Amino acid sequence: MKYLDEYRDPEAARRYAEALTRTVTRPWTLMEVCGGQTHAIVRFGIDRLIPPEVTLVHGPGCPVCVTPVELIDRAVQIASTPGVIFCSFGDMLRVPGSRGDLFGASAAGGDVRAVYSPMDAVAIARRNPDRQVVFFAVGFETTAPANALSVARAAQEGLENYSILVSHVLVPPAVEAILSSPSNRVQGFLAAGHVCTVMGYREYEPLASKYRVPFVVTGFEPLDLLQGILMCVKQLEEGRYEVENQYSRSVEPEGNRQARDLVSSVFQVVSRQWRGLGSIPSSGLGLREPYARFDALARFGLTEGSQEESSECRAGEVLTGVLRPEDCPAFGRSCTPETPLGAPMVSNEGACAAYYRYRRMEEPCPSN
Amino acid sequence: MSGEDLARSGRVSFGGIVREVSLACLPEAQPGEYVLVHAGLAIGSIDEEEAERVFRYLEELGEIE
What is the complex's ipTM, to 2 decimals? Predict the structure, then answer.
């Protein structure tokens, strides 16, 4: 397949790793923001290919993981309402709320359907005019255009039985929250390539200057990650803190204009709760007034509410790169993908899920 | 965007599996192009020239030593 296998070439990967070894003169800590990048790093062993001076920590780029518990509870509540068809991306179905998950709601008789796209949910709304169809609109900026499109189309076609449960979050505020924390150790960032395909990368420039930290917009294949890491380490070694673009085959400085305009016509920036990180101002999206009737919380007369988190789950520390999944006492014991304590173990972008899937079988070397 | 623009879609092959994909945010997309799709919406296209950059960069590094 074109544009895929080439970026997994082991010989080129080895040469990148060697170039890194020649470039690095002291320890550096980098964070990759996106959960998809975390999975690729763990799956392809990128963290083991690079010299030991370079430490990769995993960021909060998993929208499923940062969706507040309360919203999961509202989703379960709505899905359990008679007559509702509740649609969601598949990996939301097992995320634990405070009293069960969507999978459980389905088992109890709720009509819960995993879909690939919000457009599938709109099609379901079209075919079932007498039922309320709700889509769980979870995501970062990459998914916002598709969610915005679904609302714009529903409005245009008069599909008043369609609504979305919004859990949209933005990357730059999360990055700033990490950078401004007194315990921050991250010295450079690999910015999320697909978020930047939509948004461009201009909004990282003020962060790079203010915190004197380099950002490299990076893709998801092994060679993308290795090149992104190399470009970031070079900046650090040379004392530069600029925004560079490794993923230039997909990302332009201004991103996708049509997508951004569509998002800003349907959504506005609001403050949001992040599961594990708390409230971050101006860090999410909510529906604008002309589309407010498509908000599922309003449609069903609910508020977001607040809920206590399981104290055993340390998702917040995992999401900010402070705790490695394998170092969590619950990892692989009380917390597995089938019995998750929190979202990072169940989401396909969650760091805990990545380690469970690709590293769990490794036994430590026996001591003599 | 007009109703027609929002409804514009195309058939995209994901390694042989063909799905309908919205082109509302990629009006200039042409048949035969490689596009980046997320949740059923095309959000960008692949620039062929830039796609080579990952390999050219390695060659440039080789020349420096």
Answer: 0.88
